[in-house]
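Suppose you are handed only these lines of text.
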Amino acid sequence: MNPLREGLVRQRVPEPCTLVIFGASGDLAHRKLLPAVYSLAHEGLLPPYFSIIGVASTTHTDDSFREDMKHAINQFSRYRPINEIVWSALARGMHYVQGNFNDPQTYKKLQLIFEQCDLERRTGGNKLFYLSTAPSQFESITSQLKHSRLSEGQGWQRVVVEKPFGHDLASARELNSHLRSIFAENEIFRIDHYLGKETVQNILVLRFANGIFEPIWKNNYIDHVQITVAETLGVGRRGVYYEEAGAARDMMQNHMMQLLALVAMEPPVNLQPESIRDEKVKALRALHPLSEKDIGSSSVHAQYTAGYIQNERVPSYREEEKVSRDSTTETFAAVRLFIDSWRWAGVPFYLRHGKRLAKSGTEISVFFKKSPGVLFNAADSETPIENNVLTLRIQPNEGVSLRMEAKVPGQVLQIQSVKMDFQYGTEFGSDSPEAYERLLLDAMIGDPTLFIRHDEAEQSWMFFDPILQAWKASDSQNLVTYPAGTWGPPESEQLLAGDNRKWRRL
Ligand code: BG6
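From them, the structure of the protein bound to 6-O-phosphono-beta-D-glucopyranose can be written out as follows.
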């Protein structure tokens, strides 16, 4: 069964199972996981027999855990207010285990509760472990699952691993080999929530369900590609995490590389998970490594200073909670990269991401080559001709638009860029499911298509490792700044200006 093919035509209901959430009292569980489970319940997509066990160190009884989760759902679910009938059916199968993740006793308690749930809810021994904890806990939790033999037994067992997947290539490799010593690859679901977004799944549909794009999806016709993930948000209360991560690790190495892989991959031979993932890996393997010399001229990293977002003054990164006063962590990154493949040779891909930028928005823009320098585009033409641009708006205002040139009505010849626009909201009306709904359902079904395979994670790190090392080595000299509320430092504009190009305005 494949979500890209069959999910569209018939609903998929997973087998009975127990979802075990490690880090159940954390932010992700509150904001995303429980609201997603509830939406699935609301839509009748959960298995007929289902239970949830939350595991965390916070003090809770089963009842107080349920109350806490109900509150979270009421606050963050897209189906509000909560429907009491749906909720009480879900809450009946909800339990809590309080304990330290490193303590074998926690797993003994978990085993007992699991057996009780399995019996009461007839979940057939099937378990989905969700690691929604700090990454430093991943190895210890999975080792404990192995020692307590929870990672084996009747039915199936799967593990969902949250990002970040490693801190660099070496740690990603180590984590892969650790996980693969306990679970089989088809039991490991490395999550990247961007892949659960409707508009991201639509990249493949746009490319391979339409006859007109694929023939021109190559260096003969494409001038360059821009991928932007801009956020007005700062780091909020995530200072501790962000100090270690920075913009490239937090967004580029994972989410943006996935967007890039979907844009750049060759058509898969079919829609089977491995066929799609094979092609994504091939695209990532073809990334041209940046040499030490190139890193300076092909990348920019920067940090925000104080500024204004929607007329409100916001502090500098160094003034944020739990951030070092002399931090050199980047909150903005831009990279120019090339893919050494027959299709993409010579086509630059420009990636940029930043916190506290002027506007929030994620989009991929494919710039086609300009029309030949004759007729309307002749050298002496009075109206310059622009590139045609196909823009995939991932969020907000999800949709696809095509910029083209048109004659302005009137007696004189005047040419202007106009836009053909498809918008999800107006075309389909209904709300799209949240990314976590899709991904949780897929993990319960056992479909890995929209999850990262071990080699994808490593390939992406292989590209970013040298860049991150070079940035670290040169931080105090090369880290530039930008005021919050702008589009990043001037160096980011220069990265494209040097190639006679400009970032698209969002
Ligand atoms: C997360 C990052 O993975 O993605 C955050 O850690 C970022 O820093 C978030 O804000 C963006 O996700 P979305 O779905 O809001 O684009």
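What can we learn from it? The two ends are 37 Å apart (CA to CA). The longest helix spans residues 239-264.
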